[in-house]
Write a structure and sequence with these properties.
The protein is globular and about 45 Å long. The longest helix has 11 residues. The protein has about 230 residues and is mainly β. It has a 5-stranded mixed beta sheet, with no helix packed on it. A 4-stranded antiparallel beta sheet has the order 2-21-20-19. Strands 3-4-5-6 form a 4-stranded antiparallel beta sheet, with no helix packed on it. The chain has a single domain, classed as Neuraminidase (6 Propeller).
């Protein structure tokens, strides 16, 4: 298994009125993050919060290319991002509130269950569980990128990003976050960045995804932007 230290390229927040960041997703332009009773859209270049939708949002968030999906207690809501209207609901697999992260891939939703160490692939129309992947760690945020399944984990002061085998659940790669830096939500930008919810820090972080390929955005550029925001 490969191990590396996380390269945090930028921090966003804390944001006014936000005490905790939960689910995170990316619509190709904006980063959406859940913060309890609202979903907010962030411009990752400027760090500016562009829009806010009033909706229950205490766990994972996903985007299917058209709609947002948000875990809200024992249900998952399908939301129109233009209006904030809830268009449909399906049962969340955890039922009692153990569901954590969520992602969209292969036309389905992938929902993490924190204490159960599981990721469920579910039908977005019915909520039926199609398959279950067992992890050996707590599961927070979940994301797919380039055919790779990643999930966050958070236990006391230790948090990591784990690349796991989607068939066996075996950990293939581990990215270790600094001590005390937690990961709640997790989403890829489809390239070289992960966006990580920071739980009760009220922050969102951009973390370099380990890759052999050169990134489009250099570390120095991101650090310069981060320093400028302080």
């Amino acid at each position: 298994m490969k191990r590396s230290a996380a390269r945090i390229l930028r921090e966003y927040g804390p944001f006014p009125g936000v005490s905790s960041v939960h689910g995170v997703t990316f619509d190709g332009t904006q980063v959406w993050f859940a913060s309890g009773d609202r979903l907010s859209a962030l411009d990752p270049a400027s760090g500016e919060t562009l829009r806010t939708l009033d909706t229950a949002s205490r766990a994972g968030t996903a985007f299917d290319g058209r709609h947002l999906y948000q875990i809200a207690g024992d249900t998952i809501n399908r939301i129109d991002p233009a209006t904030g209207d809830v268009l449909a609901t399906i049962p969340a697999p955890g039922g009692a509130g153990d569901d954590s992260g969520m992602a969209w891939a292969e036309g389905t939703l992938w929902v993490g269950q924190y204490r159960e160490h599981k990721i469920h692939q579910i039908d977005p129309q019915t909520g039926a569980i199609l398959r279950t992947i067992e992890s050996n760690r707590f599961v927070t945020g979940v994301t797919w990128v380039d055919g790779e399944l990643w999930h966050g984990t958070w236990d006391d002061d230790t948090s990591e990003l784990l690349h796991i085998d989607p068939q066996t659940g075996d950990v293939l790669e581990c990215v270790e976050m600094p001590a005390g830096v937690g990961v709640s939500g997790l989403e890829s930008d489809g390239g070289e960045l992960f966006f990580c919810g920071g739980g009760n820090s009220g922050k969102l972080r951009a973390v370099r995804r380990p890759s052999k390929e050169a990134a489009d955005v250099t570390d120095s550029d991101m650090r310069d932007n981060s320093e400028a925001d302080k």
